[in-house]
Design a protein that fits this description.
Helices cover 42% and strands 13% of the residues. It is built from 16 helices and ten strands. The chain is globular, with a radius of gyration of 21 Å. The structure holds ligand V47 and iron/sulfur cluster.
């Protein structure tokens, strides 16, 4: 008797392009795709094709589950010694009157605003201030931890860490241990941008390079910490630079298994030195998410950061491989509002985020930083017609 094709097998076998068909077969058979496959998908595959495959992988891994967490952000400063061309947020130290620099008390007061709220994580990332050093941040972590020991402390990109460790004249391992002892539990994914020097030299030449970024994450993983990884896409990079970036992350993940999630970040072009570079289309964004889901086979989660992508596109991404929508944020981080994200309403509460996920016919699940389930919202009856997704 002839075996019936599943819908995904039919899509793959009906594809006229033989090369794309072979890649599709690898995916269906749970085989890893390689660098050339990744580039080919970017060059030749249609959105419906990569979308169907990515959705197949997403549903194999997570079914309809779509995670979010309740967190808030602290941005200690926007003063920065670096000068990344895509950054709309930083101010050089020479213009520090245009920026902000928070004291430990200021930041503790932000934490205290959440005293009665069931947030599980604080995300701490900012510019690289020449006077905020390793010991300042260790004291900050200790103060937050003493005030609220249940909060997971996720903070600092390798850009900040590399600078603070070099200034304090400690090795990466010593520095990470100091911060870990002070309460740091994970690293966020920022500062990765595009690893390849051909692009890095043009958009952020003076900050930590790919090797340094990867080494800091590797060291964190070795110390038992988890971390995220990002990729800033949709500017001057070529398709192969994206695949090269994902390949480097995939290799490190093979070694350490310390990454929680991969977060593609769409380049926004307002008020920065790359304003002349046009932004990518929604179709290109969704193709990117889908291909990321296919390439990053050893990453459990693909996250869309809704404050940057916009709510409607974040909702759409749930059909293209994404299974995580960052957090309910009361005070959207300034890095995106300053770079031109269309997010005018700087917050989305839990009801709105759950509704947004349900409208996409997915299953909203609140998680903690390490993806332990806190609450499944499937049966919480909120009004699904609520206009949660108005951009
Ligand atoms: O590294 C800066 C990006 C990143 C722009 O780990 C821009 O959970 C687009 O990494 N257009 C920092 N992107 C933010 C970040 C992050 C955000 C949310 C969650 C997590 C996590 C990490 O923001 C920077 C850079 O890649 N960025 N400027 C811009 N114009
Ligand atoms: Fe500084 Fe980060 Fe902005 Fe680069 S992206 S200028 S490191 S704040």
């Amino acid at each position: 008797m002839m075996q019936e094709h599943t819908p995904i097998q039919s899509i793959v076998s009906n594809t006229s392009n033989k090369e794309l068909q072979l890649i599709g077969e690898k995916i269906i058979n749970n085989q890893r795709i390689n660098f050339n496959d990744g580039v080919l998908l970017f060059e030749k595959a249609s959105l419906p094709y990569v979308g169907a495959l990515a959705n197949f992988v997403r549903e194999q891994k997570h079914g309809d589950k779509t995670y979010f967490n309740r967190n808030f952000h602290i941005e200690p400063t926007n003063i920065c010694v670096f000068n990344c061309k895509f950054c709309s947020y930083s101010r050089l130290y020479a213009h520090k009157e245009e920026g902000w620099e928070l004291s430990i008390d200021d930041m503790l007061n932000i934490v205290k605003k959440y005293d009665d709220q069931p947030v599980t994580e604080v995300h701490i990332v900012g510019g690289v201030h020449p006077k905020m050093n390793l010991h300042f941040f260790a004291d900050l972590l200790k103060a937050i931890h003493a005030h609220r020991p249940d909060l997971h402390l996720k903070g600092f990109t390798p850009v900040e860490l590399d600078y603070m460790f070099r200034k304090a004249k400690v090795s990466v391992e010593e520095g990470m241990k100091i911060l870990k002892d002070a309460g740091l539990q994970s690293l966020p994914g920022g500062g990765a941008e595009i690893f390849h020097p051909e692009i890095r030299q043009q958009i952020c030449e003076d900050k930590v390079d790919a090797e340094g970024w990867l080494n800091i994450h590797k060291t964190a993983h070795t110390l038992g910490m988890h971390s995220n990884a990002t990729m800033l896409f949709g500017h001057i990079e070529k398709y192969w630079h994206r695949v090269d970036h994902m390949e480097k992350l995939r290799q490190l993940q093979d070694e350490t298994n310390g990454f929680n999630t991969f977060i593609p970040l769409k380049f926004r072009n307002k008020d920065n030195d790359m304003s002349h570079v046009p932004e990518t289309s929604v179709v290109e964004d969704m193709r990117l998410y889908a291909i990321a889901r296919l390439y990053m086979d050893n990453f459990n989660h693909i996250k869309a950061y809704w404050p940057m992508l916009g709510r409607q596109n974040a909702q759409l991404s749930l059909s293209f491989g994404v299974n995580d929508l960052d957090g309910t944020i009361d005070d959207t981080t300034k890095i995106y509002s300053m770079a031109g994200s269309e997010e005018q309403t700087p917050s989305m509460n839990t009801e709105q985020l759950v509704t947004l996920i349900k409208q996409a016919k997915r299953q909203p699940v609140e998680r903690d930083t390490l993806y332990n389930v806190i609450k499944d919202y499937s049966n919480v009856a909120w009004n699904e017609t609520l206009s949660a997704v108005a951009n």
